[in-house]
Amino acid sequence: MIPAPTQPGLPLEPSTDELRDLLEAATARVLHHVQSLPEQAAAQMEGGAEIARTLAEMGPPERGAAADELLDLLFQKAVPRSFNAASPGYLAYIPGGGLVASAVADLIAGATNRFTGVWQAAPALVQLETNVVRWFTSLAELPPESGGILTSGGSLATFSAIVAARRDRLPDAFLSGVLYASDQAHHAVKKAAILAGFPPENVREIPTDERFRIRTDLLETQVVADRAAGRTPFLVCGNAGTTNTGAVDDLLLLAELAQRERLWFHVDAAYGGFFLLTQQGKALLKGIERADSIVLDPHKGLFLPYGTGALLVRDLGTLRQAHSVRASYLPPIQEDAEFIDFCEISPELSRAYRGLRVWLPLKLHGLARFRESLQEKLDLARHAAAKLREMPNVEIVAEPQLSVAAFRLVRPGLDSASLDRLNRSLLERINGKKRVHLSGTVLRGTFVLRICVLSFRTHLERIEMALEDIRAAISEV
Ligand SMILES: Cc1ncc(COP(=O)(O)O)c(C=O)c1O
């Protein structure tokens, strides 16, 4: 006779009541957490390392523990000691937000656990994700033969883009291939090129103008020089919103140059892409519709929780050519262009069902709410820059092109090292008040502070708090 299980802790298949208790215990904490976000610190790092050490465990637990104990550990100890990227005061790096509807979608996706790597295993669910990708390609005004894939983030989307470009434009011995991006491009581009097999020196860093946009004249000169030296220019990356300042390259000019020089035109729109929903963003990103590939990060501009990027390609065939490998143990792969096997166009076979965490919030909230919120972010960044400009001794280093403003404090008579120290200490003072969290960066050798407004939870009231805290911190340093 097989003995009945007698272990403490939750059975692998809980009863309906046990499962309901678990869901309710988690839901109660999530509700309390989300509702208290406006009062929470925008970042809370004190004691983080010590708590992390107390949580280090050597072996896995042989016996289960009570749900309340584990959930308390998460919500009372682990979650609070972090950058609070879900807070309305989080204005650092590139904020996301974390729409809770996406978390509900993840719960459903996990609990139903369908396999979406191949079309035949869950045709209707694959269709919902395909719809999401189609909405994105239409937002970017790509042609009908375009397509794409949802990824875990912008970095892996960039990786697949570069592999697709390499397979499309270069021979198998591809080491003479050269890629071009501005000195403001995200490091994900260089990383992806290295992962795709290129030596780091094959990625050319092209200088930028006074607004941190790629110098297309210098780009052209470099392409011509590389060709003359026997190398093979094959890809140029345009920025649709840099991480440092939100700078948008002249995408139309880049598209023309790419066409003239027969380069694959990639656009990194991880941060800026969803501003296409606004009139202002659409005008600024003109030329994106001519891209061969585009990276978007729904976990930035669509406010989703981390873990969702997207790669769009002008010709879906290029993704298939780069990623398709068949095997006899898989269900039949679709030959009909209407039906897509995600394993054919991406590096993954088994995968999270990412489509739902995009589909559910878009269907629940409707695109108009996203459009409105993104317009609000553009307006708030402009408002912040205008108010900063009025503060004595504050220099705006980068006016917002999208929703980032970069600034620094200047004091007559201080050399550049002292100015950097002053601004680092200013950043610490502002963040020390905990109502907002900003981050810094280095632009042309100078340390600057930046405000990036991108969370759906950030409204005027919080930007006013940021300005108050900046004013107060200036008077303290
Ligand atoms: C402009 C830009 N490109 C690419 C990336 C990389 O994206 P991810 O962090 O989703 O991998 C980022 C991340 O902040 C970014 O801001």
* Coarse morphology: globular
The secondary-structure class comes to alpha/beta
Tally of discrete structural domains: 2
Strand sequence of the main sheet, in spatial order?
1-7-6-5-4-2-3
Q: CATH fold name of the largest domain, please?
A: Aspartate Aminotransferase, domain 2
Task: Please provide the count of β strands.
Answer: 11
Mean pLDDT, to the nearest integer, reads 97
Largest sheet: 7 strands, mixed
Uncertain spans: none
The CATH superfamily of the largest domain is identified as Type I PLP-dependent aspartate aminotransferase-like (Major domain)
Q: What percentage of the residues does DSSP assign to strands (E)?
A: 5-15%
What is the radius of gyration computed over CA atoms, rounded to a whole number of angstroms? 24 Å
CATH architecture of the largest domain: 3-Layer(aba) Sandwich
Ligand names:
pyridoxal-5'-phosphate
The number of helices is: 16
Distance between the termini: 76 Å
SSE sequence, one letter per element: HHHHHEHEHEHEHEHEHEHHHEEHEEH
- Quick one: CATH class of the largest domain? Alpha Beta
**Helix share bin:** 40-55%
